[in-house]
Amino acid sequence: MTRPSMDGFTSRWGLILASLGMAIGTGNIWRFPRVVSQNGGGSFLIPWIIFLFTWSIPLIILEFSLGKAARKGTVGAFGRLNGKKWLWMGNFVGACALLIFFYYSVVTGWCLRYAGVAFVDLLTGSGELSALTGDDAAARAESAFVDFTGGVSPVIYYIAAVLLAAFVVRRGVAKGVEAMSKVLVPILFGIMIVAAIRSLTLPGALAGLNYLFTVDFEKLLDHKVWIQGLTQSAWSTGAGWGLVLTYASYMRRREDVVLNSVLTGLGNNAASLLVAFAIFPAVFALAPGHLDPVTDILQNSGPASTGISFIWIPVLFSGMPLGSIFNLLFFMALSVAAISSLIAMVQLGVRILEDAGLSRGKSTAIIAALGIVIGLPSALSSDFFSNQDWVWSVGLLFCGLFFSVAAIRFGADRFRSRFINSPGNDIYLGAWFNLFICVVIPVQGAILIGWWTIGSIRDDLRDGIAWWDPFRPYGLATCLLQFAVLIGVSIVFRDKLTQLFMRGVKTLDEEARESGADSVGEESS
Amino acid sequence: MSLGAVLTMLFFVSVLWGGFAVALAVAIRREGKKNVDDAVGGSHPHGR
Question: What is the count of residue pairs from A and B with beta carbons less than 8 Å apart?
Answer without folding.
Answer: 77
